[in-house]
Design goal:
The complex is a heterodimer of chains A (284) and B (201).
Chain A (H helix, E strand, L loop, with lengths): L2 E3 L4 H11 L3 E4 L3 H8 L7 E4 L9 E3 L5 E4 L4 H6 L1 H6 L1 H7 L5 H6 L2 H7 L6 H7 L3 E6 L2 E6 H4 E3 L2 E2 L6 E7 L6 E8 L10 E10 L2 E9 L7 E2 L13 H14 L10 H23 L1
Parallel strand pairs in A: 1-3, 2-3
Antiparallel strand pairs in A: 4-5, 5-10, 6-7, 6-10, 8-9, 11-12, 12-13, 13-14
Chain B lengths: L8 H13 L22 E8 L2 E8 L4 H7 L18 E4 L2 E4 L12 E3 L7 H12 L9 H14 L9 H7 L10 H16 L2
Parallel strand pairs in B: 1-5
Antiparallel strand pairs in B: 1-2, 3-4, 3-5
Helix pairs in contact in B: 3-4, 3-6
Classes of the chains: A alpha+beta (284), B alpha+beta (201).
């Protein structure tokens, strides 16, 4: 029998989770958890509802310029947030293509990240922005870089007694342009076939830093290793074409219902190249 | 049974699981919910809501999706199809915001206002419905309640007000509502015409 509890404070939720042990599940927007529950894929002894917790429902910018988004904030709230738009417009841009309006009104950013499906849109963008996630348990609080958060398909470093409480996005370095390109049959509804989040810093016409992260090509969001060839260079068409080819070579996606592995491998390079070109343009 | 198509890896996982257990995701007949599917069952939870302005209380299972509670209570204007948040036929308003009835946990309706197609009787909703009819924005009609509900939400809550609603806003608002009769052009025309009428009231 599954027990349902709805704590009123974060402290109470953290305590309840520790007491309930590893057979407990946290419930936020209920998209993945709901589908899994109703189809018997998970049978938790305790379901702890954290959707309404006020401590997880804020969007704020700290004095040091870090954007902090509570994990129970919905995709739709992020999409429409003026603070998010002003801090990191690429997050607003990306949120517009996360599922449909209906999905965005229920789904939370914390649930999306903790579900740890590499075919989600937000993690690549957040990793390209060097974001981190704050995890709390009765043992204390820790902050983990999102790049190191994901460990495998539907797996992460999140421990059974930990509640993800906030996503932190540091201020963007001056001269940085960002974008997210998503390739999907229905861009605003489907999961990406492939995609690319890029953050490119231009200094004196040359690339001084570049982060390119791809969804849906590996078990976890893929941080491109080929970006090294861009550093110190002028982002010409020839260089970007070479970069795209190199990205295609470094990824080894498996096929799924949306596309074959061969198609994804090719498309990953094309989308990565386009994302860097657009980010570099925005950086100027 | 329609083929289950999805590019999502969550859903892919489900497909594998269903194949291995020999179960299938089929649209449930009226009155039948997926309550029994979860193995262990659950303790029920009392929720208090209002549906179309009327207070209503339900004893729900934590597994329950809102759409099943609504249909069992007689609100069968809310349709069921994919149960995966792909098609939008189960769209209802929760505190004025469109959500999928199939992916909304029934327990999350506690303390909230639910609006189903049966409650869409004010001027804005009636105008949209009238234009859907006059532009033939429907053929079989199965997507229509969800489609109308998404359009009502857009026209009542667009941040810039009605005057700033564009064709691309309309497309974004109904992006999650599938019409298998391919009546999108007529639906867009109906929405734009309704918008025009509402602006000139």
């Amino acid at each position: 029998m599954t027990r349902y509890i709805r704590p009123e404070t974060l402290d109470a939720a953290v305590t309840a989770l520790a007491e309930a042990g590893p057979d407990a599940k946290l419930l936020a927007g209920g998209l993945a958890v709901g589908i899994f529950l109703r189809n018997g894929l998970i049978t938790p002894e305790t379901l702890i509802d954290i959707r309404e917790l006020p401590e997880l429902s804020q969007i704020l910018v700290t004095e040091s310029g870090t954007l902090e988004i509570g994990t129970a904030v919905t995709h739709r709230q992020i999409e429409l947030s003026v603070q998010v738009q002003q801090h990191s417009a690429v997050i607003s841009e990306m949120e517009r293509v996360v599922g449909s309006v209906q999905v965005r009104n229920n789904g939370t950013i914390g649930g999306n990240i903790c579900h740890s499906d590499s075919a989600e849109d937000p993690p690549p963008v957040l990793i390209s922005l060097d974001a981190s996630i704050v995890l709390r348990s009765v043992r204390g609080e820790r902050e983990v870089s999102l790049e190191e958060f994901f460990t495998g398909y539907l797996e992460s470093v999140l421990q059974p007694d930990e509640v993800a409480v906030a996503v932190r996005v540091p201020p963007l370095a001056p001269g940085t342009g960002c974008t997210y390109i998503k390739l999907a049959k229905r861009a605003a509804v489907d999961f990406p076939i492939v995609g690319a989040a890029a953050a490119v810093t231009i200094d004196g016409g040359r690339v001084s830093a570049a982060r390119v992260v791809l969804p849906a090509v590996a078990a976890t969001p893929w941080v491109c290793r080929s970006t090294g060839m861009l550093i110190g260079q002028i982002p010409t068409d020839d260089l970007l074409a070479e970069f795209g080819r190199s990205v295609s070579e470094e990824v080894h996606p498996t096929g799924d219902t949306a596309a074959s592995g061969t198609y994804k491998k090719h498309a990953a390079g094309v989308v990565a190249k386009r994302a860097v070109a657009e980010a570099a343009k925005r950086a100027r | 049974m329609p083929p289950l198509r999805s590019s999502g890896s969550t859903h892919r996982l489900l497909c594998v699981s269903f194949r291995s257990t020999g179960q299938g995701i089929t649209p449930s007949p009226v009155g039948h919910s997926l309550r029994d599917v979860g193995k262990g069952g659950s303790l029920t939870v009392l929720i208090s809501t209002t549906i179309n302005g009327r207070p209503a209380e339900f004893q729900v299972d934590v597994f329950d999706a809102l759409v099943d509670i609504l249909r069992e209570a007689g609100y069968t204007g809310v349709k069921v199809n994919c149960r995966l948040g792909e098609c939008g036929v189960c769209t209802v308003l929760l505190d004025g915001k469109p959500v999928h009835g199939c992916l909304t946990m029934a327990v999350h309706a506690n303390g909230r206002e639910i609006m189903t197609i049966e409650g869409q009787v004010d001027d804005v909703a009636r105008e949209i419905q009238a234009k859907m009819a006059s532009h033939q924005g429907l053929q079989c009609g199965y997507c229509t309640p969800g489609m109308v509900t998404s359009l009502v939400a857009l026209m009542k809550s667009h941040s810039g007000g009605l005057a700033s609603v564009s064709r691309s806003d309309i497309k974004a608002a109904i992006a999650g509502n599938l019409c298998r009769c391919t009546g999108y052009e007529q639906i867009l025309e109906a929405a734009e015409d309704a918008l025009h009428s509402l602006l000139n009231r």
